[in-house]
Amino acid sequence: DELLGKVLGSMTAPLTGFMAVNQGVIRKFVYAVDALIKKQADAS
User: Fold this and answer.
1) Torsions phi, psi of 13, nearest 5?
2) Residue spans per domain, the chain
3) H helix or E strand, kind and range, residue 1
4) Cα distance between the two ends of the chain
5) 3-class secondary-structure state, position 33
6) Of 38, 20, 40, which is closest to residue 30 (Cα–Cα)?
7) pTM value?
8) Half-sphere exposure (CA, 13 Å, Cβ side) for 41?
9) pLDDT digits (tens, 9 = 90+) for 1-44
10) What values do phi and psi take at 42, rounded to 5?
């Protein structure tokens, strides 16, 4: 059981890190789009 837990833990750790990186990229993209929308609204 302990070995299985270690194996599963080592498999999910990179996946968790990958998801965290993707969320950061998506968050930055959303902020950039929001800033562009606000800039266009201020210009008109």
Assistant:
1) -60, -50
2) 1-44
3) none
4) 64
5) helix
6) 38
7) 0.57
8) 6
9) 789 988 888 888 888 888 888 899 999 999 999 999 999 999 87
10) -70, -30
